[in-house]
Amino acid sequence: MIKLPPLPYAYEALEPTVSATTMRTHHDKHHAKYVDVTNQLAAEKGLEGRSLEEIIAEAESRGERKLFNNAAQSWNHAFFWTCMTPDRRDPSGELLRLAQEAFGGLDELRARFVQVGADHFASGWVWLALDGGRLAVVDTHDGGTLAHQAQTPLLVCDVWEHAYYLDYKQDRKTFLERWFDTVANWQFAETQLAAAQGGGEAWRFERAA
Hints:
- It is a single chain.
- By secondary structure, the chain is mostly helical.
- The chain has two domains: 20-82, Orthogonal Bundle (Helix Hairpins), CATH 1.10.287; 93-196, Iron/manganese superoxide dismutase, C-terminal domain (minor pseudopilin epsh fold).
- It is 50% helix and 11% strand.
- The protein has helices at 20-44, 52-62, 65-82, 93-103, 106-119, 165-168, 172-182, 186-196, and strands spanning 124-131, 134-141, 152-158.
- It has a three-stranded antiparallel beta sheet, with helices on both faces.
- The relative contact order is 0.16.
- The mean pLDDT is 96.
């Protein structure tokens, strides 16, 4: 089985960008439900004991949409918590060089990330990824994930309404702007980039003990 990972910081650590109320609801209710349903369905489908990444890939190959959506959402949310930090610093080094190459600089990357996320229709995710050696901003719908794709995810922001509605109502664009400016975990993104370039292991969802 898989387990709900704890937040890597206190519920209130990301305030005022993300409130403690939102974090408690998002993590303790939404994420926990995805994990519970994933464990239930994985057991029914004979996938108990598999890693979450393996469950996602197998569910997709079998066309098991309910299992795929819940497993992918379990993975996406765990990755999302890691993509935020109360101790944000600007990107540097290779990541900044690639941002310049792909977008013209960090400001242009920010504009693209916010635009893609704000323009995304309905529920989903906006990702910064390494795709064929080049940075790209992509979005996925509903439970869509980069957990098992050729692209390496560096950062993701949740654009389901439950991620921001308590704090921003319908103003997703302001949420994305503040998220990028204040809590995006660029140190983690740099670790993911290094892994994609052969410098260590990329992030994976931890199995239950």
